[in-house]
Amino acid sequence: EIGADALLLAKNVDAIYSADPNKAPNAVRYTDLTYAQVLEQNLNLVPFRTVRRYTYVLRYLSDPVMIRQAVVNLAGNICLFIPLGFFLPCSVKKLRKFFPLLGFSFCLILTVEILQFVTFLGCCDVDDLILNIAGILLGFCLWKLAERHLTEKL
Questions:
Q1: What number is the average pLDDT over the span 74-94?
Q2: pTM, whole model, 2 decimals?
Q3: Strand 43-44 with 124-125, pairing
């Protein structure tokens, strides 16, 4: 613990940008930034908007930075949650059925998304919720297959 009242993050940029200007040459420089604009940049409540944007990048653009960002976002939001869908039913007996797991996962991820919205740490995106749930459900399917395989062997 450093006992500070505030912690500042200093970057080597001359203004506020929509993205890192050193990595994204098309980053937009904001001269004035209102609270409403910050909300607009950090909130997506339209299902599959982000998925459609990243799918467009993967299909039609050749910029390696944007392609990497699209792959990391889409695949990462699914793959990072597969273990949760596998291990939650292993460790919590009540979550061994589909709907209890779905409800718990929805509430958990929604809480994280709301925290991102309130703190401006990350983006609050309904597509993250959808992709995270998809990852959890994939993990749950793998757990069901493993459970079935193990019970058949016994």
A1: 96
A2: 0.77
A3: parallel
